[in-house]
């Protein structure tokens, strides 16, 4: 299968340290010989943070508005253009501090409907001192936005710990844990932390079959059972907020509709393009707040069969397993011929 490009969203309130972390991430990828690309969003008309990024890094800029509201549609267009033009190994989206990350998740997953990109994780950088101040006051829009950014994170960087005492660090950790029971918390000063660990903690859903499964399961027509060590040994996959599934086979329309109906409550949004084994058309499906909708489509150009699920802390391993089962059950089996004596 063609390479799927991982995408990370970098969120965090204004001045929390996102650009500082971005620079560390870029250094890390470059040291590994990978080609990162950046999507930067600034509320102003000039991208000042962009000036801090090395010129050799391909960059798309969304200026003069916030990704999550005024220029949301542009995000998926910009991301798709960047992908086509630069074919990066990894993409990082730095949102304005005022953005609601869930809207950005929506923009990225929109792109995965027609480009092979996969949202790997949402990193939220928290200014520990600022959060403490707001937490003590317990009010204001900033406070609520910060809370939202923390709630959706797959990993939390508790930055600027040089500005708080040890006792305050414990207090802030408890607040973060209360708002987000799943994301690992990494304390840091100037976002100095083990980047490889940060990225692995950020979650990431495996879309490629693991070698053992490809050999044994899929080839022999049997997917691994849910809860087997293979699926359950990845606890970090269970708090991701988006799971992207690229189909290798068509699925039965009735079984797929049933699967969508039975989606866990924690999945509140899903969308995708699927081919059904029992009809010749392709369908665009939408699912939001327990209602689904299927529309016949004829996509222009090459578009993969893909489904994206967005929610909070659902088990992506289980969804993946169910989808693989659907794919397997729709593959026509060879007819067994009994040989007479
Ligand atoms: N004291 C202290 N300052 C820090 C730390 N990390 C970053 N800073 C400073 O905080 C300021 C803001 O950092 P940035 O990385 O630009 O933050 P940002 O989230 O990208 O800011 P916006 O683009 O405005 O949203 C800069 O002056 C940094 O040098 C830290 O751990 N401690």
From TrEMBL:
Residues in CobW C-terminal domain copies: 244-325
Q: Which SUPFAM superfamilies match?
A: Hypothetical protein YjiA, C-terminal domain, P-loop containing nucleoside triphosphate hydrolases
**Substrates-to-products reaction catalysed:** GTP + H2O = GDP + phosphate + H(+)
Keyword annotations from UniProtKB, A to Z: Chaperone, Hydrolase, Nucleotide-binding
Q: Where is the composition biased (Low complexity)?
A: 214-224
What superkingdom heads the lineage? Answer: Bacteria
One GO cellular component term: cytoplasm
Q: Where is this region: Disordered?
A: 213-235
**What Pfam families does the record tag this protein with?**
cobW, CobW_C
InterPro entries, per the entry:
CobW-likC_sf, CobW-like_C, CobW/HypB/UreG_nucleotide-bd, P-loop_NTPase, Zinc-reg_GTPase_activator
Keyword check for Hydrolase: yes
Q: Does the keyword Lipid biosynthesis apply?
A: no
Return one GO MF term. Answer: hydrolase activity
Q: Which CDD domains match?
A: CobW-like
Where does the CobW/HypB/UreG nucleotide-binding domain start and stop, copy by copy? 6-186
What does the sequence similarity comment in the record state about its family? Belongs to the SIMIBI class G3E GTPase family. ZNG1 subfamily.
**What's this protein's name?**
Cobalamin biosynthesis protein CobW
Q: In which organism is this protein found?
A: Paenibacillus donghaensis
